[in-house]
Write a structure and sequence with these properties.
The protein is mostly helical. Helix content is 66%, strand content 0%. The chain contains three helices and no strands. Helix 1 packs across helix 2, helix 1 packs across helix 3 and helix 2 packs across helix 3. The protein is globular.
Length: 93
């Protein structure tokens, strides 16, 4: 059941990461957004714990904020690496 939870959280975190990522990320496919979200959830937990995060009762908002930030970075990287980042590129002559 934990895998299903990570996938659902990954989709939500991936979409939030896509939302807060700078530039035009609208043409990043949903499967890639999902992978970035899952990566954000997993890496977010590792980074959170590495900096002394040990959880809190209830929803741990700091952990989720770290996950969203990491997912946003992953969305930007994925978008750039797949050539789907059509930000404001101009040809220089």
């Amino acid at each position: 059941m934990e895998i299903v939870g990570i996938i659902i959280a990954g989709l939500i975190i991936g979409l939030l990461g896509k939302l807060v990522a700078p530039g035009d990320k609208d043409n990043t496919p949903i499967w890639l957004t999902l992978l970035c979200g899952i990566g954000g959830v997993l890496l977010g937990l590792v980074v959170y714990q590495a900096f002394g995060g040990n959880g809190s009762p209830g929803v741990d908002w700091v952990r989720w904020a770290v996950s969203i930030a990491i997912a946003a970075v992953l969305v930007v990287l994925a978008s750039t690496l797949t050539g789907r980042n059509h930000g404001q590129r101009h040809a220089h002559r």
